[in-house]
Amino acid sequence: MIARVRAGQPEAYAELVRAHTGIALRAAAALGAGPDAEDVVQQAFVKAYCALGRFRDCAAFRPWLLSIVANETRNTVRAAARRTTLAGREAALVGAEPVIPESADPAVATLETERRAALLAALEQLSEEHRLVVTYRYLLEMDERETAEALGWPRGTVKSRLNRALRRLQRLLPEGGAPE
């Protein structure tokens, strides 16, 4: 599809945009873009289009795009000189994808909501690199290779930072609240 875009077929890029908008929005929201997530994703797609000449043919598009989304999110948050609150991030994540089915038992739903809030609060306490690796690997459900590509890190670095981040999360979470 990238070859078609490079050959001047705009409908091919439209297909790429449609295929990756959902994950890009989830990434922007998870990384703190809050209400600016759509603007961040739109700008990331523009930058990706302009940079297609530098895209390696053998690389996967999704991790490459998500690294642009992450950079654009970081730039937007810094330029606005504000930090998104935990509640804002949680609302963005909840809005991106239903977490608890409507038919769930209210007691189970309450427990899941509390666990999610505890996890997001613990994520806030991690360093940026640890928060990024956990977000990409688990919240965005990227495999190890994609996470490494998106972050521009060797796979061994992803493994070691993920291991450290998960150990730190385990210490930060209340008993029984650790992710599985």
Automatic annotation (TrEMBL):
Keywords associated with the record: DNA-binding, Sigma factor, Transcription, Transcription regulation
KW Transcription (keyword) present: yes
Start and end residues of each RNA polymerase sigma factor 70 region 4 type domain: 117-169
Limits of the RNA polymerase sigma-70 region domain: 21-83
InterPro entries xref list: RNA_pol_sigma-70-like (IPR039425), RNA_pol_sigma-70_dom (IPR014284), RNA_pol_sigma70_ECF_CS (IPR000838), RNA_pol_sigma70_r2 (IPR007627), RNA_pol_sigma70_r4_t2 (IPR013249), RNA_pol_sigma_r2 (IPR013325), RNA_pol_sigma_r3/r4-like (IPR013324), WH-like_DNA-bd_sf (IPR036388)
Pfam families, A to Z: Sigma70_r2, Sigma70_r4_2
PANTHER family: RNA POLYMERASE ECF-TYPE SIGMA FACTO, RNA POLYMERASE SIGMA FACTOR HI_1459-RELATED
Family to which this protein belongs: Belongs to the sigma-70 factor family. ECF subfamily.
Name used for this protein in its record: RNA polymerase sigma factor
Organism name: Streptomyces griseorubens
